[in-house]
Predict the 3D structure of the following.
Amino acid sequence: MEQSLRSKYLEELGIPDFLYTQKNTIKEASESSIVKCLVVESTKYKSFCEEGESRILLLKMMSAIGLTINDIMCINIDKNDLKEEVNKHDCDAVLIMSDEITTYKDNQFVVHHPSSIVGRDDLKRESWEILKRVKQCLK
């Protein structure tokens, strides 16, 4: 990823560039490879599965930890269907963007939905800490 673009994404998340200086090498996923990160939401309101502000912020968040749109799969589920839906996908990490869903494995992380993060610096910092854990899980 180009350094200026990466800096822009980190700035959008409110992360100073000096805190995240490791160079990212992005390898695009092929059709035969597994999904690196399954991104789950349980809301239809401001869904990141559709074009809009939430999707743009989600992609910036993923880029900040070195993932491309080809590395992720976004799904919208009923909050009671997490196990069933996750089992349908071969993924290294699961990022759950809902306060209504709880995790049941070590590779699952709960973070605020992008529509909640917009304009909230306190949620940006909290979300960034979780994203760093996702990145560690993917190594």
